[in-house]
Amino acid sequence: MYAIKDLIPREYQNEIFETTKSNSTLVCLPTGTGKTINIILLALERLNKFQDSSVAIVSPTKPLNAQHVKTFNEHTTIPKEEIVLVTGGTKPEKRIGLYNKKIIIATPQTLKEDIINSRLIFKNFSLLAIDEAHRAVGNYSYTFLAEKYSQESNYPLILALTASPGGTKVKIEEIKNNLHIGAVEIRTEENLQQHMQEKQTIWLEVELPEEMKQLQSLIKSAYKEKLNDLKKIGFTKPISLITKKDLLILQQQLRKNLSKKNPSTFYGISLTALLIKIDYASELLETQGLQPLYEFWSKLSQEETKAAKIILNMENIQQAILLTNKLREKDIKHPKLYMLRGIIRKELEKNRNSKFIIFANYRKTIEEIMDFLNKEKEIRAEKLIGQRAGLTQKQQIATIEDFSMSKFNVLIGTSIIEEGLDIQGGADLAIFYDIVPSEIRAIQRKGRVGRTKTGKIIFLITNNTREQGYRWSAHHKEKTMKKTLMIMQKETQTSLTLD
Question: pLDDT-derived band of residue 450, with 50, 70 and 90 as boundaries?
Answer without folding.
Answer: very low
